[in-house]
Amino acid sequence: MRPATPIERAPRGVEDSAVALEMSPGGGVAALVSRVDPAVYTSNLMASRAGDVDWVGPRAVAHDAVLSWASEIGGVVPFPMFTLFASADSLRAMLRDRADSLGKLLDRVAPCQEWTVRLFRLDDRAEAALSRTSPRVAELEARARAAAPGQRYLLERKADEIRGAELRRVSADTARNAFDTLSKLGESAVRDALPAEPPGAQPAGLAVLDASFLVRRDRAASFGAAAGDLAAELEPRGFRVELSGPWPPYHFVRDDA
Amino acid sequence: MTDDDLALTGDDRLVLGDLLNHVLDKGVVIAGDVTISVADIDLIRVGLGVYITAIQSELDHAAERAATDADLPVLHPARGL
């Protein structure tokens, strides 16, 4: 972040530590720093603790609280959690080497916040809605209704056979359209990979879109309204929308973002 | 402050998966004098997978209970607009 930061107002960092500012040698950018005990934060300890979410969780909350504060008062370029330096000298060397690129990143993201949108398919509702959302299913059902009993049975069987594939196609189309619609309101957008599809029914819904958007602060209300409109539009089609944010620009500080 | 003091419960736990997905492996990645590499993040993900499975189970049960009373909410502004 920029050096002119009222650091005394920062939330406490990991391990309830005070957060300090480390200036780059040229003064263009500064790092928000928490000091941790090197005897505790060793690779061995991380290996034994990394899978323990009850240990990682509170530290993640503290990490995010500091970055969210920094993002709101002037902008911040997030580093991944547990980015540790062996010494203040090594941190200053990194700042010296990267001051220009970090400064450019900061200029780009500081006017913005990150918002995350996830789309979930509620299988029962989405399948029931296929008569409206899938032209192929709708056509087969219409032909079945108009057909004689023998042919009706065959057409209904055919409609049943394509429901699974149509459900996946409608999901993919819905996710792509939602992403495209919301992308127009952001400066940048990225889709995260979805977790492997779990077996069995998912009462809370199967994730079909996990996307993050870099949105200017003065467009946050418009973005929220658009997400709300999307939720209202997609609910009758069997999809649930979740919106979370604002986040610091976690997804948007890499070269490929 | 002990880890017990920091333990998360209730609603905090339900949003923790979302939080971890943001903070763990996003952001500027640097190499060199960093003493713990992002490769260790894979270990966290293993733990997170187990954790999220437990949370998802809680959510599913909550959703089932909610579905018996009313439609599920469709929009969750987790941190407000």
Descriptive notes:
Chain A is elongated, with a radius of gyration of 24 Å. In chain A, strand 1 and strand 2 form a beta hairpin. Chain A contains eight helices and six strands; from the N terminus they run E-E-H-H-H-E-H-H-H-H-E-E-H-E. Chain A has helices spanning 43-49, 53-73, 88-109, 123-128, 130-133, 135-146, 149-183, 220-234, and strands at 19-23, 30-34, 112-121, 188-191, 206-216, 239-247. By secondary structure, chain A is of the alpha+beta class. Chain B has 81 residues and is an all-alpha fold. Chain B has one domain (8-69). In chain B, helix 2 packs across helix 3 (41-69). The radius of gyration of chain B is 17 Å and the shape is elongated. The interface between A and B is large, with 69 and 51 residues.
List keywords for this structure.
heterodimer, A: alpha+beta, Alpha-Beta Plaits, 2 domains, two-stranded antiparallel ribbon, B: 81 residues, mainly alpha, 3 helices, disordered N terminus, disordered C terminus
Multimeric organization? heterodimer
Q: What's the tally of helices of chain A?
A: 8
The percent range for strand residues of chain B is under 5%
Shape verdict of chain B: elongated
Short description:
Chain A has 8 helices and 6 strands; from the N terminus they run E-E-H-H-H-E-H-H-H-H-E-E-H-E.
SSE arrangement:
The complex is a heterodimer of chains A (257) and B (81).
Chain A: E1 19-23, E2 30-34, H1 43-49, H2 53-73, H3 88-109, E3 112-121, H4 123-128, H5 130-133, H6 135-146, H7 149-183, E4 188-191, E5 206-216, H8 220-234, E6 239-247
Antiparallel strand pairs in A: 1-2, 3-5, 3-6, 4-5
Helix pairs in contact in A: 6-7, 7-8
Chain B: H1 3-6, H2 11-23, H3 41-69
Helix pairs in contact in B: 2-3
